[in-house]
Design goal:
Elements (H helix, E strand, L loop, with lengths): L2 H29 L10 H14 L5 H7 L25 H21 L7 H28 L4 H13 L3 H6 L6 H14 L11 H17 L7 H10 L6 H15 L1 H10 L15 H10 L5 H4 L2 H12 L3 H22 L19 H14 L4 H26 L11 H5 L1 H4 L2
Helix pairs in contact: 1-5, 1-6, 2-4, 4-5, 5-6, 5-8, 6-17, 8-9, 9-11, 10-16, 13-16, 15-16, 15-17, 16-17
């Protein structure tokens, strides 16, 4: 497939995603249990944005009281930090992305455009669409960045379509964009693009190193467990040409520290002392059951719900046998393995109410890049290519089928269902 054709298809897919996001937002605001697009855990991510922009403080009691009903108030509402404030256990990277649009909505609301409460529909649209825009930018960043890394246009498009259609990703870019998974995936796509070699092979300006460092820091602030993905980013930088000038790495460190340092500073004000950890009081007690379950269990097992992960892992394993693809595929396996350990050992390894297993969404970028690179470098017969495209189409149809059942509430969103209830949901749920 020629690059212009693949690019048009990629832009078309991202355009369709944008339309779907607007439809989902309208349905959530108009027909949902509450007039909110920021739902589930996204309420606490968004509470950071509202607390700073609307209230000008870091005390979340009134934010939870406004944002959570009709859902029950979170346990944190009953707690107080040593500084006397109601805590927020989530990192605030999502708030950094939402802040400009939400601030503009607040300015307009204070000017008479609506209630300036930080919860009304204009705020919800601002918060949601800002994250959707980030996702569109990151999705195209993956497609363009993969091309710069010598992935052929057809396989770059295949990777983008597979991520959007054969995994839980579309749900967390449209129905629940306020969660941290979509922004993390988009940030990795931008890092893939920024870290790619330039066409003339020249040196980078300090600003590019600064941007890569800042985006890497943002990745950690979106979800602290994303720290396990940093070796993949470092591998991209190393693969570009080995060690770079000290000055470039200095800009890289400055960008990273300049963003990451905000977490201990903000948490110091919230808690009245130095603290890094977000989910205080929760631990890694999942054990062997969690390690097995997060991949294979009926209760949100990643490979059980979305077998496309298995195809990606298989292709990356194949890439380990080829010198050209060994490093990116090994780093992709390392990224997936890091998230597997972090979430499999977590006490809530099934991640509560969720469409499929959202724990591995951020691993999609390393895995898909490695797989697409393998398919681009190794000779693939037409028959094999058609088989791979066929399997991907089946995976997309299967994911769409399960997503429809999830949206229709035809099976338990907490994963407490049988395999039959899940895969035969039209017979049980309607």
């Amino acid at each position: 497939m020629r690059e212009p054709v693949a690019r048009r298809w990629a832009l078309g897919a991202l355009g369709a995603l944008a339309v779907l996001a607007v439809v989902m937002g309208a349905l959530s605001l108009g027909r949902g249990a509450s007039a909110a697009w920021m739902i589930s855990d996204a309420k606490q991510y968004y509470a950071w944005t509202r607390s700073v922009i609307v209230d000008g403080d870091l005390d979340f009691a009134n934010d939870y009281e406004l944002l959570y009903p009709p859902d029950p108030l979170p346990p944190e509402w009953h707690q107080r930090t040593p500084a006397g404030r109601t805590p927020n256990k989530y990192p605030f990277g999502v708030a950094l992305l939402q802040a400009p649009a939400v601030w503009l909505a607040h300015v307009l609301a204070r000017g008479g455009a609506g209630p300036a409460d930080g919860e009304a529909p204009p705020y919800q649209w601002a918060a949601g669409l800002s994250l959707v825009a980030w996702a569109l930018l990151g999705g195209y960043g993956f497609f363009a960045g993969a091309g710069r890394w010598k992935v052929t246009p057809g396989w770059a498009l295949w990777g983008l379509l597979g991520m959007l259609g054969a995994t839980p990703l579309a749900h967390y870019l449209t129905k629940e964009p306020g969660m941290a998974h979509g922004p993390g995936w988009a940030t990795l796509g931008l890092l893939l693009w920024l870290s790619a070699p330039t066409e003339n092979g020249g040196r980078w300006a300090g600003g590019r190193y600064l941007a890569i460092g800042a985006l890497s820091g943002l990745l950690v602030l979106l979800r602290n467990t994303n720290v396990v993905l940093l070796p993949w980013v470092a591998g991209l930088l190393w693969a570009r040409g080995g060690a770079r000038p000290v000055r470039g790495w200095g800009w890289l460190a400055l960008g990273f520290v300049g963003v990451v340092l905000w977490q201990p500073l903000v948490f110091h004000r919230l808690w009245g002392g130095w603290q890094w950890r977000t989910h205080s009081g929760e631990g890694f007690t999942g054990g062997a059951q969690g390690l097995w379950g997060t991949l294979f269990a009926v209760r949100h097992g990643a490979l059980f719900f979305h077998p496309w992960y298995g195809l990606l892992l298989l292709l990356n394993a194949l890439g380990l046998t080829h010198k050209t693809t060994r490093r990116p595929c090994a780093l992709a396996w390392l990224a997936f393995g890091g998230l597997w350990l972090a979430h499999g050992l977590w006490w809530c390894w099934w991640l509560g109410r969720s469409f499929g297993n959202r724990a591995f969404i951020e691993a999609l970028t390393p895995l898909t890049f490695g797989a697409a690179l393998v398919l681009s470098v190794r000779p693939i017969s037409r028959r094999s290519a058609r088989l791979i495209w066929g399997l991907t189409a089946l995976a997309i149809l299967a994911s769409a089928y399960l997503w429809l059942g999830y949206l229709a509430r035809a099976y338990c969103d907490d994963g407490l269902h049988t395999a039959r209830e899940l895969w035969a949901w039209p017979l049980h749920g309607l």
